[in-house]
Structure formats: structure tokens, C-alpha cells
């Protein structure tokens, strides 16, 4: 029973982080109420999307080694899209899209979306492996930077580490 109350407290703590400043404009809890999932089930769905996204990216890497560039580009990009889509379970689709285009993460969102498109174009349309690989690297870095924008102080910490290791101030 003590464990259940602790778990409940942790779930509420996580929920508070994703709901942010008290304004809940998500479709999950808002007027449209598109699903009746509990907070716990939304966390499971989010986790499942992240795991599926990782598996798709791993399978994409296997396709790269098999020189299947179209499959590589499509699977890797799909993995990133599924992982991002999982966050809609936490905030709701409308709220998530609004947060993606906040001024704090606008550039990283645009870079991420453009790199996804470029990965698909370079791998599936142009079939130029080295360009597709460069786009995947850009996509991965953009996804990490985008993800860090949701963790308070994470970007500042990464910039400080980068500056400390290289002696160069990070311009981003």
C-alpha cells in the first residue's frame, strides 16, 4: 500500500512536469477529450512509442549495412517520427504541436523536421548514401537538442560541458 502511494506521487510529479504552467490546452484533458486513457496508460503509450522508434532506428542501421538506402532512410526517419508522436500521449497533440513551435525550440524543431525530410530525399529519392548518413547525423543531433529543450537547464548544462571541453563558446 505504501508502494502504491509512492507510485501515485511519482506519476503526479511526472504529470506536473508535462502539463507545465498550469494551462492545459491538451486535447486529452481538454474539451475534445479524444481518448479516455489514464495518465498511467498514457505513460505506457509514450514509452511504447519511444521503444518502437528506437527499434525502427536500429533496423534502419541494419538496412544501411545491407546497402538498402531507401529502407534505411525511411525506417530511421519513421523511428524519429514515432518517438516524437509518443509525446502527444503526454501533453495531447494540440499542446505538443504548440510546444514544438515555442520560441525556445522553434529552431531545433525546424532543423529536426527539415533533416527528416532531407534524410528521406537523400536516401530514398537520390539514393546517395553519404548524404543520407550525414542527414541522419544531423537528424540525431537535432532530436537530442530538441529533447533537451524539455528538460529545465539541460541545454545550458550541455553548452557548459561543450565549452569546458573545447574552450569554444557554443553559439547555439
What does this molecule look like?
By secondary structure, this protein is mainly α. The protein is 74% helix and 0% strand. It contains 8 helices and no strands. α3 packs antiparallel against α6 and α3 runs parallel beside α7. About 7% of the residues have low confidence.
H and E string? HHHHHHHH
- The helicity comes to over 70%
Derived structural class: mainly alpha
What do the pLDDT scores average to? 82
Question: How many beta-strand segments?
Answer: 0
User: What's the helix count?
Assistant: 8
Radius of gyration: 18 Å
Distance between the termini: 47 Å
Q: How is the main sheet built? A: none
Strand content is under 5%
Shape: globular
Q: Uncertain spans, ≥5 residues at pLDDT below 50? A: 21-32
How are the secondary structure elements laid out?
Elements lengths: L1 H18 L19 H27 L3 H18 L1 H4 L1 H8 L5 H20 L3 H20 L5 H13 L6
Helix pairs in contact: 2-3, 3-6, 3-7, 6-7
Quick summary:
By secondary structure, the protein is an all-alpha fold. Helix content is 74%, strand content 0%.
Give me some keywords for this one.
74% helix, globular, 172 residues, mainly alpha
